Amino acid sequence: MAHLGCPKCTVEGDNLSHRAYFPPVISTLRTDESVRLQTDYDHHLGVSPMTTLPIDIVSTAPLDYMHLLCLGVTKKLLDLWFRGPYQKPFESTGVLLTTGRGRQSHSHGQTMGK
Fold first, then answer.
1. How far apart are the C-alpha atoms of 111 and 56, rounded to whole Å?
2. Which of 11, 60, 84, 103 could bridge to 27 as Cys pair (CB 3.0-4.6 Å)?
3. pTM (predicted TM-score)
4. Sequence-separated (6 or more) residues with CB below 8 Å from residue 91
């Protein structure tokens, strides 16, 4: 599904190491009619309730926070910070945890200066 995941165009992505990559190519834009008729069969999981609304689905449907940030940028940053070349500061200074009672800093490993 992710290889046809763009809601605005029909670009096909490639899967490599469990990640979807979209090449920088010019592809056909989706239209309100093509979405309503589900002409790109593999892109749709079913009939969207939005098809009952008198709107242009492609241009007015918002791109969602979860897929754009939580599964995209935020996941990439966390991977870089905790698994990538920038993980060293977290090993010695502690990790800031957020709880329902506010923020608390918990130290992991040795404290700096010892």
1. 57
2. 11
3. 0.51
4. 108, 109
